[in-house]
Amino acid sequence: AKPDPILRVDKIVRQFGGITAVDVEHLEVQRGIITALIGPNGAGKTTFFNLMTGFDQPTSAGKGGAAWNFNGKQLTRTGAAAIARTGMVRTFQLTKALSRMTVLENMMLGASNQPGERLALSLFPPAWRKREAEVHAKALDLLARFKLDTKKDDYAGSLSGGQRKLLEMARALMSDPTMIMLDEPMAGVNPALTQSLLGHIQSLRDDGMTVLFVEHDMHVVRHISEWVVVMAEGRIVAEGPSDTVMSDPAVIDAYLGAH
Ligand code: ATP
Fold first, then answer.
1. 47 CA: nearest ligand 1 atom
2. CB distance 43 to ligand 1 below 6 Å
3. pTM of this prediction?
4. Which of 202, 256, 206 has the alpha carbon at shortest distance from 228?
5. pLDDT tens across 81-135, in order?
6. Is 115 in the pocket of ligand 1 (CB under 6 A)?
7. Whose CA is nearest to atom 27 of ligand 1?
């Protein structure tokens, strides 16, 4: 297929004191496929996600301020909320569900409003009520899709680890993203839910979404990703079609260990 990058990254560096956590020279993520980002502990994968989604700022980035471009927009020096509004959302390795709020309340928080929308709507209560009703209906739809509808009034804190991962994914979808970045979506999930999570990730792709995910389980990577990017010591050290990368002895020896 013709390359069609939705995300393009150039010369992004993030240092913590003397440690270079991320030093990415160039990376493209192709639209509409599932890409896995793999690499040993401390390779910089989470830091890379943080940088892309505005949760952390690079030490240096790009040339002339052009460091990363998402879906035609330059995102350098764009805040996390504004980045989410461009259609790129992420989940966290440690889930961020607010445990003292209900599942449904967590979902309502995921709905993104355009700047000023809330104010504009509040000046006209019927429009605000309509918008709220739409958001509510959407939240219930998504909860049903992720089989969390029966839990909607439970505190998020009462969910199992796997259910929290599902909630986080569902919540991320509230803003109708075009790309979703999942940080170890399978970690801490019991085997029964693993299959269903994998199915959900594939169905996001089938719906036309671009998926980039960090994963340590090589069976999972092999099973659902079309493209694999290998990171080590902050750099992209290999990438290619999943089958090729996952059967490359050099990659296996150097970066994955015995799998
Ligand atoms: P894992 O697979 O274990 O989650 P990772 O590939 O996501 O690892 P990062 O968490 O991005 O790796 O860490 C990359 C490097 O940056 C590590 O050496 C880490 O110790 C360092 N690092 C990350 N965040 C910080 C921070 N806030 N302060 C200092 N050092 C940090």
1. 11
2. yes
3. 0.90
4. 256
5. 889 889 999 988 777 767 788 999 888 877 755 555 665 666 667 767 777 888 8
6. no
7. 16
